[in-house]
Amino acid sequence: MYIVVTDCGSFWNHNNPILKKYKESVVVVCLNGEKVTDEYRCFVSPYKMKERKICIGYQPYGPEAEKFKALESVTHKFVIQFGYHEDVLFLTDDNSESLYPFLLYIGKNKYNNTHLCSISPMVYEWPSYNKLLSDVMNEHPSLKSLFYIDISEFFDKNNERETLHKINERMTEYFEANFPRILNGINKMEERSYFDFASMSYVPLTDGFESIDVSEKSNEIKDIDFDISPMHCTLGLAMVPSYPSDDPYSLERAEQLTARIDGKKICNILREQRIKLAQANNIPFESEECPSIGPCAGTCRKCDSEAEYLRKELEKISEDRRVYPQFNVLEEMNNDR
Description:
By secondary structure, the chain is an alpha/beta fold. It has helices at residues 66-72, 75-79, 100-105, 129-139, 164-187, 248-255, 263-280, 301-315, 329-335, and strands at residues 2-6, 26-30, 41-44, 87-92, 113-119, 143-149, 193-196, 201-204.
């Protein structure tokens, strides 16, 4: 599992003491363009802070903001930080900038499960904040779960002189008690879910009220019951054959074959056999000699496409009429020495 915060978050940031227990999984996105800690893994945005000036009027948030654009320019590098087949939990708070990494990541890696734990902003810098989260849930199936709590829940309604320090203390106390419950719920999650405060547990969206068990709230959870460390799955290794075939860059890396000294020889032998197979079965077939020079893998996408063409043509011929010229690759290799 990965836990993602920013250096701009007012509550969820690199200084939050709750995160120390899970430091192996924490990634700090440095939106201000400078590394802010050596305690956690950092992803530094290319944002360059300009000279401070007094600004009057509305300052843009979201896609129009400079910090958003800077992180957006390295979206691919940011997304591949989190491997594949992982749970990625984004922690955001009343600073809307803390949402930037989540908004840029969601939907980019559909092979990971994305989770959002969000505290509402005190000032709605973005219109229709609730609608934003609702749209994300509807448009992005890769968002596996949503935890959303209104920051007003941490206010003392009887104190007109409420301070940010006191609000922060209550939030810290709340999440210190419930963060293990949140992480355990994510780890055991099988379906898209939302966090239900009546039972203090995640509830599948498809089950609705029927699956709410309020007795869960009384269960005290002091620690997580799984290994928090990321699995470090990589394309073409731990996750074969489910790598993202709609990502040309990843597909090329995953399917890249290893070159060998005798690759060209293998290529020529297999090409000759494809020609013989086509002639023996009267299949129209043309194959240009490969122009590649030097070591190769012995086959490539062009070779595979020719083989696929012949396979489909052979299927049109009844099995009792098909002719398969016999040959032995090793023998052919030895004879060609």
